[in-house]
Design brief:
Elements: H1 6-14, E1 22-26, E2 39-40, E3 50-51, E4 55-58, E5 68-75, E6 89-93, E7 105-108, E8 112-115, E9 118-121, E10 131-132, E11 143-145, H2 153-161, E12 166-170, E13 174-180, E14 184-185, E15 196-197, H3 200-210, E16 214-221, H4 225-237, E17 242-246, H5 257-263, E18 267-270, E19 275-276, E20 282-286, E21 289-294, H6 298-317, E22 327-331, E23 342-352, E24 355-360, H7 369-374, E25 377-381, E26 393-398
Parallel strand pairs: 5-6, 13-16, 13-17, 14-15, 17-21, 19-23, 22-24
Antiparallel strand pairs: 1-12, 2-11, 3-10, 4-6, 4-7, 5-9, 8-9, 18-20, 20-21, 22-26, 23-24, 23-25, 25-26
Helix pairs in contact: 3-6, 4-5
């Protein structure tokens, strides 16, 4: 099978990836969830005119410089006054107190002198000053949160102010992750001859959780058709939305993932892609389950997971924008001409003289976790790109921090 171009592979992965069904969740659990429909306010905020300062509620026509007004009571937040203000009267009021009928201004306490039951105005009042009118923030029925919004901390505060204890959001994608390979051992174990410590899953699970997914760890399947097929069947039985495999995606005698996927009923759309790192990547569907088979090399696994899994999870979560944003930069060092594969070079980023400078790390081997860890972005080089010089324009995608 010919190498599939990156853009075609992305289109195949995202084909049919619509938002998952709606569910209601408590506001406390809604952070970074995606709204399934518009949310309108259930109340007007503030519901009545309120004081923005501590001071005295007055009639502006009465509260002229030097005026002496009779204090007829006190208004605290949550304790409205029970009668209207008459001519020559004032009411002591605190921030958040409801402005009484008849009053149209606030004289702040710093601009008054209190003499028993009388308040002396030391700065004339202005109608409307220091008063928050009813509905100045929003009114009942206003649509303030739109479908597709990924709820921020500020959005949660707004929803609470709108008097919503729950919000309608799209269900979280459920992702199962399966590592394959006899050579893998868990961190903390003592690797035997030829064995390595499993690292891929930790980064991939973190990526998935950062996108709001629920993650099921299927562990490590050994290099047998039976073990690999059984692990894939577990994902099917769990009815997960996405199955991510790592390793076993090449063409060697021990690379059994593709065969196991096909035997499990997965309809494969591609299993070679024209990008570096990540040539031996697979994708398929089994009914409602998406399958992405990532390479085993840790850098290839991470880069492909970041570029393909993350947009898929965003689409399933209901996000309106799913693709990674690309930024303009300039090269920090010379680069040789590229071949037929699209390159995603691990790169350092820095601002110099008002320009974003991308300097790829010198060693781009797909097994080097140290260089991946220090990278701040991926420098994108199209297929057959000509040799480039320091200072030439380029495009980068920032990596998560």
């Amino acid at each position: 099978m010919a190498l599939m171009p990156f853009t075609d592979a992305m289109a195949a992965v995202l084909e049919g990836a619509g938002a998952l069904p709606e569910e209601m969740v408590a506001l406390e659990d809604a952070f970074h969830r995606v709204l399934a429909r518009d949310v309108a306010s259930l109340r007007t905020q503030p519901p009545e005119a309120m004081s923005a300062m501590d001071g005295y509620a007055v009639r502006a026509t009465d509260a002229t410089l030097g005026a002496k007004l009779k204090v007829i009571g006190e208004i605290a937040a949550g304790k409205p006054f029970d009668r209207a203000l008459a001519a020559g009267e004032a009411a002591r009021i605190f921030t958040g107190g409801v402005v009484p009928a008849g009053a149209d201004g606030i004289v702040i306490q710093e601009d008054t002198t209190r003499d028993g039951g009388i308040v002396i105005v030391n700065e004339a009042a202005t109608a409307g000053r220091h008063i928050r009118p009813a509905g100045v923030d929003f009114s009942q029925g206003d649509i303030l949160l739109r479908a597709g919004t990924r709820l921020s901390d500020r959005d949660l505060a707004l929803a609470a102010g709108m008097n919503h204890p729950t919000v309608p959001v799209h269900r979280r994608p459920v992702v199962a992750m399966l590592a394959t390979g006899d050579e893998l051992v868990m961190p903390g174990a003592t690797p035997g001859p030829g064995q390595i410590v499993l690292s891929n899953g930790f980064a991939l699970r973190a990526l998935a959780r950062a996108e709001g997914a629920e993650v099921v760890d299927l562990g490590i399947a050994r290099d047998t058709l039976e073990a690999t097929t059984a692990a894939i069947q577990r994902a099917i039985d769990l009815k997960v939305d996405v199955l991510i495999t790592t390793g076993g995606a090449s063409v060697g005698d021990h690379d059994l993932v593709q065969q196991s996927l096909v035997e499990a009923g997965v309809d494969m759309s591609f299993w070679k892609i024209a990008m570096r790192p990540g040539k031996p990547m697979m994708h398929g569907r089994r009914g409602a389950m998406w399958v992405i088979g990532l390479p085993g090399n840790p850098v290839s696994s991470y880069v492909c997971g970041f570029l393909f899994m993350v947009p898929l999870l965003r689409a399933l979560s209901g996000r309106s924008e799913v693709q990674h944003h690309r930024e303009a930069a300039v090269l920090g060092r010379d680069l040789a001409a590229n071949d037929q594969r699209e390159d995603y070079l691990r790169t350092r980023l820095a601002w110099r003289d008002g320009r974003l400078v991308a300097t790829p790390v010198t060693k781009q081997d797909s097994s080097l976790l140290g260089n991946l860890a220090i990278a701040e972005g991926l420098l994108v080089r199209p297929p057959h790109a000509e040799a480039a010089r320091t200072g030439d324009p380029c495009e980068i995608i920032r990596l998560p921090t």
